[in-house]
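Throughout this chapter, every protein is written as a compact record of paired, labelled lines. An example of such a record is reproduced below:
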Amino acid sequence: MQEVIQSGEMLFIPAFWWHQITSLTQSISVNMFYGDRGTNMFLTKILRDPVIDSFSYWFLNIIEQNRQLDCFNRILLDFKRVFTSFCEKTWKEFPSDQQVNRVVDIVLEYLGMDRFPPQQVQSSSKHPPMLKIRGLLWRS
């Protein structure tokens, strides 16, 4: 389906629906997730079939985007806090332990690891390292 959005119009695309946007002129785009703070409804929806496959593809792209960063090892060392913080900042939701563990399993399988490296020293930082979203990369 092709649509041309006119000045002042808005396009709503549900989360994780595949889409491609091509700008015909110079423009500004805004991508936003929204919901009710702390309800955990969005996470509950995206972490079950059939949406989990799309979420996994999207989230593993974010993992891949961060893989070459100097802080990637610190991200793995503190992954549970990293993912929890990511959810709070991105969707204003707080994942349950079960949801965090589900994503841990997805990432470990993708990286070919049995477990994340143990943290040798407890981080003194109040905030964990951030996963940065840099757009979708091509992955086979």
Summary: Residues 52 and 108 are 16 Å apart (CA to CA). Residues 51-66 form the longest helix (16 residues).
